């Protein structure tokens, strides 16, 4: 073991969860805050769907990490490889350790490409792309532009994933483009979903069913891709009636996802969940067994949709409860499971799906009816939300 340094508050992860928490803690007067993250670039990942759909430039989604790191925060440019909550230490990739009084765990989610045989090889070859990486999103748009006939498949894996609406959004952006180009009737579009319906909230599911019908998309419910055969341009799909083979000329695929492997191995992981998410109270965001540990974002076990909007509501709860814990008080702030999924249903329309733990619509914009496709919501997605993210959320002001 290398050297050990100590900080009052340590945050593991400098993404859309860690940076806002650090900013809020600094604004609350906390002086000894450290963020562990090796990344030199910070990404606004929700824009990648629009990059893949040819509706936004790739570069707009990236900024230097140094430009978003809050002033006065100690930035440790390393990866965490182990957490020992009993010793109150985080081990870094250089062998050194960081001890803490309170810990916030938010390293994000792991993309498990190897869980689907043939997926990684297909990503390196032709015909398959994924908007789930910065590098691959432009390839999605190249494939969409280059497809004039044949079969196009858009699939979603089972289990929690970040932005669960993204596998659908790109299907609608592609179909609308093909409609504009006059070739949609020549393309057999398939949407493979592990869920029994279009969406978990009936009101939004009804709207999306109409979108699918409008584009003539064939839906496969309670189904998922279990293997990719890139040499044959085939997908093996497991559904309620068994296994079938679906050919493709182009495919947008999403890898299964889970907590990072090193989190799964830690004492913080939920022992009853093989995905290894950090076991927290779904309202206070506090660990159920280690009271000086909090988690938020994609790595937490709270049963909300894993979206940036969820993080925006979780961050102030985590900070308020962490500050209470530091003062020796019990946490009282509560997260209600709010999440939103801005679903692009056309190249200029969006459905803003907002809901909470009740899985009922919880609209946050007064007067406007967001339970339908809207052009003004498209501008919110394309311009409003990125502005909110870079200028307010990351600064702890929203």
Give a verbal description of the structure.
The strands form six sheets. Strands 1, 2, 5, 6, 7, 8 and 19 form a seven-stranded mixed β-sheet that branches. Strands 10-17-11-12-13 form a five-stranded parallel β-sheet. With 398 residues, the protein is α/β, with parallel strands linked by helices. Helix 1 packs across helix 9. It has two domains: 4-109 and 259-336, FAD/NAD(P)-binding domain (3-Layer(bba) Sandwich), CATH 3.50.50; 117-256, FAD/NAD(P)-binding domain, CATH 3.50.50.60. The protein contains ten helices and 21 strands. It is 27% helix and 25% strand. The longest helix is centred in the last third of the chain and has 19 residues, at 308-326. It has helices spanning 18-27, 48-52, 65-68, 119-124, 137-146, 166-181, 202-215, 261-264, 308-326, 375-393, and strands at 4-12, 33-36, 41-43, 62-64, 74-76, 80-84, 89-92, 97-105, 110-111, 128-129, 150-155, 187-192, 218-220, 224-229, 234-239, 242-247, 250-252, 257-258, 293-295, 339-346, 349-355.
Describe this structure in a few short sentences.
This protein is an alpha/beta fold and 398 residues long. It contains ten helices and 21 strands. The protein has two domains: 184 residues, FAD/NAD(P)-binding domain, CATH 3.50.50; 140 residues, FAD/NAD(P)-binding domain.
Question: Which descriptors apply to this entry?
Answer:
FAD/NAD(P)-binding domain, alpha/beta, five-stranded parallel β-sheet, seven-stranded mixed β-sheet, 398 residues, 21 strands, 10 helices
